[in-house]
Amino acid sequence: MAKPMTAKRFEQINGAMNMLHDEGVPPKIAAAMMHEALHVTPEEADQMIELLAAKGE
Q1: pTM assigned to the model
Q2: Whole-number Å distance between alpha carbons of 50 and 33
Q3: Mean pLDDT by 10-residue block, N- to C-terminus, for the chain (57 residues)?
């Protein structure tokens, strides 16, 4: 089971995801970009994609 991310880590990743989303970058591409830039783990990326999907974006 993946450990839950901290609130600070969530805000860091969420801010980047929102910025990329605002630029029209698809979530899967944004996750790949953040994996490189923020060293986001696949588990963290999956959590963010699920959260974005839940928000209907």
Answers
A1: 0.52
A2: 17
A3: 74 84 86 76 79 70
Which backbone phi and psi does 4 adopt, to 5 degrees?
A: -65, 145
For the CA atoms of 43, 57, 30, 9, the dihedral, rounded to the nearest 10 degrees, stands at -50
Residues 28 and 49: beta-carbon distance below 8 Å:
yes
Sign of CA dihedral 3, 15, 52, 30: negative
- Which among 56, 57, 35 has a CA at the least distance from the CA of 44? 35
Instruction: Provide DSSP, 7-50.
Output: HHHHHHHHHHHHHHHHTT--HHHHHHHHHHHH---HHHHHHHHH
CA 10/CA 20 separation, integer angstroms: 15
Amino acid at position 26, single letter: P
The tokens describing 50, both together, are 């699920």
